[in-house]
Design goal:
This protein is mostly beta strands and 186 residues long. The chain has three domains: 2-62, Roll (SH3 type barrels); 66-124, OB fold (Dihydrolipoamide Acetyltransferase, E2P), CATH 2.40.50.140; 128-185, OB fold (Dihydrolipoamide Acetyltransferase, E2P). It has no helices and 16 strands. The chain has a six-stranded antiparallel beta sheet with strand order 1-6-2-3-4-5, with no helix packed on it. A five-stranded antiparallel beta sheet has the order 9-8-7-10-11, with no helix packed on it. Strand 3 (18-28) and strand 4 form a beta hairpin. One of its GO terms (molecular function) is translation elongation factor activity. Its main location: cytoplasm.
Length: 186
């Protein structure tokens, strides 16, 4: 157990039986009252935001979280199988931890996974990925108005919107959080 004064922004705490990450942690000293810590914390599993005031001498449990890079190997039902790049140990990570970025994962890609006592609690795909276009509609001649886009399918099976000059076989960089086209890769 640690004191409330030991907590920093970014720590993972066990709060009311749930794991929460500390988004904001401010020390307040109001004029004629006792000092306290104002915390904004986000539940790791549900994403719900919680606000709480800690007394300066209050005890909190800081969870031991290990975050490492892992290599994504393959999809297995409701899980993604990842491998530790150092020990070559394999782990099953629930797809739900990746959220909407899971649809852009390609075999061999590096992902970030956080474990708390052998249980995966957070997973994150890279911010951008380079994918090959497997199908794109041909551009209509004369349709060159500003910012004209067409549909294209990338190698993971996701359909995205790309500029007219992108053709089948081209590699493109895609933002995994929004699914937007960023640029063509040479």
């Amino acid at each position: 157990m640690a004191k409330a004064s030991d907590v920093k922004t970014g720590n993972i705490l066990r709060f009311n039986g749930e794991l929460v990450s500390v988004d904001e942690y401010i020390h307040r000293t109001p004029g004629n009252l006792r000092a306290f810590y104002q915390a904004k914390m986000r539940n790791v599993k549900t994403g719900k935001l919680v606000e709480y005031r800690f007394r300066t001498d209050e005890e909190v449990e800081i969870a031991r979280v290990e975050t490492n890079d892992y290599q994504y190997l393959y999809d297995e039902g409701d899980f993604f199988v990842v491998m530790d790049n150092v020990s070559f140990e394999q782990f099953n990570i629930p797809k739900s931890l990746f959220g909407s970025t899971a649809r852009f994962l390609k075999e061999g890609m590096n992902v970030l996974v956080a474990f708390e006592s052998d249980e995966p609690i957070m997973a994150q795909a890279p911010a951008t990925v380079e994918l090959e276009i497997t199908y794109s509609e041909p551009a209509v001649k004369g349709d060159t108005s500003t910012n004209a886009l067409k549909s294209a399918t990338v190698e993971t099976g996701v359909e995205i919107r790309v500029p007219l000059f992108i053709n089948q076989g081209d590699k493109v960089k895609v933002d995994t959080r929004s699914g937007d086209y960023i640029e063509r890769v040479k």
